[in-house]
Each structure stands twice: as structure tokens, then as C-alpha cells.
Amino acid sequence: MKKIFSLVSLLFILNYTYAQNFSYGAITYDDYEFDRKKIDSNANAIVLREFGNAYIQIDDATGRPELFFEHHVKIKIYNKEGFKEANIVIPLYKDDNHEELIDELKASTFNYTDGKFVESVMDRKAIFSENRSKYTRLTKFTLPNLKEGSVIEYSYRLKSFRLFNFKTWEFQTDIPKLHSEYVALIPGIYNYNVTLRGFQKLTDQKAELSKECMRFSGVPIDCSKITYLMKNVPAFIEEDNMTAPSNFKSAIYFELSDVQLPSGVKNSYTKTWKDIDYDLSSHKEMGGQMKRKEVFKELLPTLIKDATDDLSKAKSIYNYVKKQIKWNNYYGIISEEGIKKSLEIRSGNVADVNLALIAALAAANLDAEAVILSTRENGTINKLYPVVSDFNYLVAKVNIGETSYLLDATEPLLPFGLLPLRCINDQGRVINLKKPSYWIDLKASQKNATSYVLNGKLTSEGKILGTLTTYTQGYAAFNKRKEILRHTSTDEFVEKLDERLPRVKIMAHEISGIDSVENSLVEKYEVEFTVTDGTNQNQFYFSPFFINMITKNPFNLNERNYPVDLGAASDERIIVNLALSDKFELLEKPKDMAIGLPNSGGKYLLKTNLDGETLTLNQILQFNNAIYQPEEYLSLKEFYSKIIQNQKSEFLLKKVTK
């Protein structure tokens, strides 16, 4: 999936044909009439041609090296669903001293009218900016005069201060591409590690030496000019249960290894873990905060006065930090406020919260460490060489006896030892102030567990009256608790729930364990279900799958080249006991099932029965793995298909005449 190579090896490939941009506005009849069946008959839009060019030059005003990136793309729109491809968003990054800028932006829509192409040029007033965060600004525009069959085209130049990652090029997006070409012009003093991610292969890759492409401190510098070409690139289709799409889309990534200045001085940017360990441990806002045990010196006796062992000490400290410092929704591995100030203002970023937790655990003489990681949406870590910027999150690790617990105090509704789902992403790096760092698997410590128990009676009017009790644990309980607390009261939550369930009337409720996050969340509802219209009381159909019925297969691709990542194993159980209003015989019923996934990956069990005047259903749906590999995808798809097909079946009950 990943290919890694250096620029030096690329220079052995000669006989290079000079790559160049295509002409803007040169729309042809072939563009307009392109048959999408040649690449994807279901495509709403197709990139006909795309060209990118990135290079480094010295800014005349500042004398600093700057990255310039030129992007030019031409897209065929087939229908209204494809209009969204005309909504362009370009992220621009900034810090306290620099910001990225765009110039030379132009955009046009071409429509074929009366035997000729008519160009609609985008008005500059259609361009606007939006501040997404402290460090990101979005430039947005929409191309004008869109019609089914339009061809759109736009180009721009980006000026950036961010040289470390050069400029990533995505060959693969959510629509197919006929031709995607990228030229990287890299001065010889810069040495980059280059990674090709994804499952699509390059159609061509060539390189040449470009003489004296820039001057540095008056010294002419030669450049490596490398062209990457990919043709007939399929759309990347996102499905549920996946980590960051960037992990799997075909793209070229760059990471700066070192800079060899003309003076002979070499600045290394790719470091060893020994270097990183020292940097982080000695960093005032990371290792320095981990050492601040004195902050908790006066608090600690009160916090752990009732603790009987190290585990109860750790739990008491964890619960204190969760309540004392509110997470401000910012990520990071470096403290922004410092743990002392965060405790005073009762707010901080991820690192503020969890570094405070680590310091407090250490103050109680517990073995506490930091774990830096990349969240699911941020992508996986490149483990071939350490790059600190790959990490965007920090959690705590406490070792008690032979057991280690991963802790994140940013979420008050999480139980001890369960990380938020956003953190369950391959591996993290454990940072210890006294020992070398090491990798640790990031796995959910609890499975998702939900049980539904319905005890009731089926009336002659076709209604089910009874008590539905739901028990949830793990992420299922965490998500439900969050949902409940978004409302002003449990009464409001139940009222909204009742509105969302048209066939169900909730007459009374009792919810316990909302604040007791170490225990199951228990919901008890007195309910009335309408399952038949009651017009034929002697013989009628009704479906027993009125609790969490599976109606849609989450897996619809013919092939999936990336894993199915559920985040955690899961277990769902449904038990229904219905007393009938009279004596019935069961003429038809859903087929009892016992099916499993390969390698004990999961199972589905269903058993229904009529015993006297009691109708019963017992159902178990288990997924024993958090992650299923691409080769297991079709088994998952078939597994769901069988369940969905069987749940279309119904009971047919016939009253027994005396």
C-alpha cells in the first residue's frame, strides 16, 4: 500500500520528456461528449485532466525560501448530483508569523450552446474566505452557470511557508480522474523522503536534472524535476467504519529529511526516537509539565484519603481531573496553558488535561507515562522514521501491577481505562521521562454491549403493551449518555425519542446510571407498539423485528481495499417475551439461524418459538473483532445480506377455534 523512495534513486531515471501544463480554456468537443462508461458509468462528474506543479524559490522581499504550488483542473459535470464538484474549498494554513496566500485564481464554466462553447467567467466577488480555526482559513468559490453537461475549469497558485511536507498530491478523490499529473521541482540542497500511499499504481514516473533552478545566497542550485502520472484513477468510495480516508487514497506525500546548505552546514529534520525522546522530555510544555508533581502536593491527601489500593487511587485522581479541567476541544501534544493555570481556569487543551492527570498520578507515586498518538481522522503514523508533527493527541498511561490502563480525562462520561473512539487508531508512542519510548497498541478496553429485553402482551387490537429494558456498556453507553445530557432533562430526551418512533408510544420511563459511568446505563420504558391494524383478529401477520431491525447493508461495494474498522468488538442481544391474548397456532415464522463469520469473527443467532400462549424471540449479533481485513469484506457483506433477508419474514398467527 505504501512505497517509499528517496529523490536520489529517482535521478537514475533519464530520457525524461518535459512535462507541462495544459492550455486554459481549450475545451474540445471530445471533452464535452466524453462517455463516462469508459471509466465509471455511475460517475456524476469526472476529472478530464489535472496538472500540479510545486517548486521552491527564494522570496525577494524576505530572503526566505517559499513553496509555490500551481494547480489546474478540468472537470466534466454529468448531472445535478455532480454540481457539488463546482463548490471549491482550498485550505490555507497560518501560524503566528506566516500565512499561506493564493493568487492567479481564475475559474470558468463552459456550456455548448448553438454549436459553440460559451464561457461563463467566475466573478471575483464569488470568492470569499472563512476562518475555520486559529490556524486554518478556507478560500471558497462556486463556478457559475452550471448545467447538466457543463465542463468546469479552474486554476490558481498557492504561496506557502510550509516546506517540511512540500506539497501533497492526491491522485484519488471522490470522483474518477482520466489524467492526473504532478511535477515536483526540488532544489538539490533539500532531501525529502517521498511516500506513495494507496492501492493505485503510477502510470508513469520520470525524473531529470534541472540546472540552476534557483539561487541560494548567490549560489546557483540544481533541482530534481520529478513527474508522477496516474491515468484512469477510480473514485475513492468512503463507507462507514473506516479511519481517515487519507490512509487509503492514492497520493504522494513528502517529509523533509535534511537540508545541505552551500556552506556545508547540514540541518537534519528527520530524527531518531532517541532525539525525539530527549526533545519531548525536556520540552517545558510537555516533559516539564509531567514533572510538576508539586502542583498536587496539597490536594493529594484529600483526593486519595479513601483509596485502599493503587487502582482506587488512580480512579480517584482520574475522576478529579475529569471534573476539574474542562476540555476546550483543541487537540495537541504540547500544553498550551500549563497544568497549574489549567487547574486555576478549569480549562485546557487535550495536553493540558492529560498532562495534569499524569503529574497527579506521579505525585501519588504511581507509574504514569504519556502516550502520543494520531487520531482516527488525522491518519496513521509513519513508523519508518519519527515525525512529531504526525502526532496530534496525548493521553495518559498508568501501570498498576501487571496491568496498564490508558486514560483520557477529556471526556467525563468515559469509564476508567476506556479511550475515546477517536484515539483507537493503530499504535501510539509511550513517552517515559526515564526510559526509551516504545510503541503500544491502541485498543478499546471494553466491547460495545447492548441488551434489549421486552416483556409484554399482544392485544387483540394488534398492539404490544409491555416493559422494554435496555442495558448498554462501552461506547454504546458513552454515546447514549452524551445524547441524553444534550437535553435539559431525561423527560425531554424521552419526549424527543417518542417523537422519532412513530409506531411506538412511550407511556412511562426510568433511566438510571447516567452519571455512574463505571456501570451499565439502564433504560426502562413502558411502551405500546402497533404491529398490526387489528382488522383480522383470527389470522394475521406481524414482524417480530421491531427492535433495532437491520434494513440496510452497511457494506455495498463489490470490493473494498481498506479495512473495516469498527473501533471495538460488539455484542447485541434482543429478548422478546409476548403473552398472547388467546390461543394461537404458528403457521409461519422467520427461519431460525446460526451463521458465523470466518475465523470466529462473529456470529448471528436467531430462535423464535410459540410455547403455549407465549411467543418468544432470542437474537444475538456479535462481532468479535474490532478490525476486519479487506479480504474479509465480502464475508461481512454476505453475513449482513442473510440477516436482512431473514428479517423480512414475519410471524403468521392463526387463532385456535374451540
Spell out the key features of this protein.
658 residues, alpha+beta, 8-stranded mixed β-sheet, 15% helix
How would you summarize what this structure contains?
The chain has an eight-stranded mixed beta sheet, with no helix packed on it.
Textual characterization of the structure:
By secondary structure, this protein is an alpha+beta fold. Helix content is 15%, strand content 41%. The protein is built from 11 helices and 36 strands. The protein has an 8-stranded mixed sheet, with no helix packed on it. An 8-stranded mixed sheet has the order 26-27-25-24-30-34-33-32. A hairpin with a 6-residue loop joins strand 2 and strand 3 (65-77). The longest helix has 15 residues, at 310-324. The radius of gyration is 30 Å and the shape is globular. Mean pLDDT is 92; it is low at 4-18.
Number of helices: 11
The helix/strand class is: alpha+beta
Write down how many β-strands occur, each being a DSSP E stretch of 2 or more residues: 36
Proportion in helices = 10-25%
As laid out across the biggest beta sheet, the strand order is 6-5-9-3-2-11-14-13
Shape, please? Answer: globular
User: N-to-C terminal Cα separation, in Å?
Assistant: 70 Å
Question: Largest sheet, described in full?
Answer: 8 strands, mixed
User: What is the overall pLDDT average?
Assistant: 92
Whole-number radius of gyration?
30 Å
Instruction: Return residue spans where pLDDT drops below 50 for at least 5 consecutive residues.
Output: 4-18
Taken as a percent bin, the fraction of beta residues is: 35-45%
